[in-house]
Specification:
This protein is mainly alpha-helical and about 90 residues long. It has helices at about 5-20, 25-40, 45-50, 60-70, 70-80.
Amino acid sequence: MSASIAHSDALWQTARAAADAEPEIRRLLGQALERRPKDLAIAGPWLVSRGLILPDEADNAVATFSVLVSHEVYEQLAGQFGYSPAE
């Protein structure tokens, strides 16, 4: 798990809670969620260029990374299963 996700998780939880009541925060949170896979899109071509995945696997790799580096997955691993950021 990413240490940066661990450090920012309280803020992320606060933003999610505030988004229920505040339209502007809801809009900004939605933009952040939409941007996540776009921000990670560089990973697919990088992995292909190093021969680590085939070109037709790039989109799947980006989708997988997007899920794995999400606060939602962090919260499940840390909160539900007791993983530390190092694990």
